[in-house]
Structure formats: structure tokens, C-alpha cells
Sequence to fold (151 residues):
Amino acid sequence: MTEVFFILIIVFVAYVMYRSASEQKKPTPQPPVNQAVPEQPIVPVATQAKPEKPAAAVKPSTPQSDPKIAKVALTKSIAAAKGKSMPELVGMTAGSIWNYLDKNGPTTVAKLVRELPEDEKAIQRSIGWLAQEGKITLKTVDRAETISLKE
Fold:
């Protein structure tokens, strides 16, 4: 019986030595060297303006800028923000949400996601920021979240 245990111990020790020797032969991976990647120039993207829907309520007349120019300017500002940090991107997106609500009035969050060129995560973070700052009001009407500026 003791001879069997002795053989098992020798086999185990031999196996451990074999494994440690094979691991020592493997080269240790070196961390990759960061190579500078040249920046790509920011090119404004031309987008087609969506046909405007008739307004349900009459708003006081204010001089409106050309929607095509506003859309391109908004796209430029967001394209410029892509190289910025997350707080800067959220702040820029919060500004575009505030401007959208100022021009169009209360709207659903789903419509904001469709209308604005930013990604949904940035829009949701920006809504949280605006809500924390007390700039907006969120209401749920018929399972749709409606967002509006505080007055």
C-alpha cells in the first residue's frame, strides 16, 4: 500500500516538474507599444432635412434659421465632440437637447433619440444631467416619457 502511494507521489512530482518546465519555455508576452495614430480630419456630413410636420399649437413667431444649416451646424458640433472626454460629450449633448426642446417644445424621449444625431446612451446621460440640474421636467404619459423645459 505504501509503495502505491510512493509511486503516486513520484508521478505527481514528475508531472509538476514537467508543467513548470514547459511554462518556463514559453516566452512572456510583452505589452504592445502604443503607436501614435494620425488624427483623421473632421469632415462635415451633409444630411437631408426631414419635411416639417404642421404644428399642433400656434407658437409666437420668432425668426427661425434654415433647418438645413442648423442640422449641419449641429452635426459639426457633435463631430467635433467625438474626440472629447465623456463629461464634455454629455454636456454638448445636453446643450443640443435643451436647444431642441426650446425650439420644439415638450417631446418624447424616443423622438429625441430619433431626431438628434447623438447616440442613445449620450442622450440618456444628458437627460439625467439636465434633470439633476433642474432644467427639465420628465413626465410619463401613456407609457411614453415626455420631456420638457422647466418654466
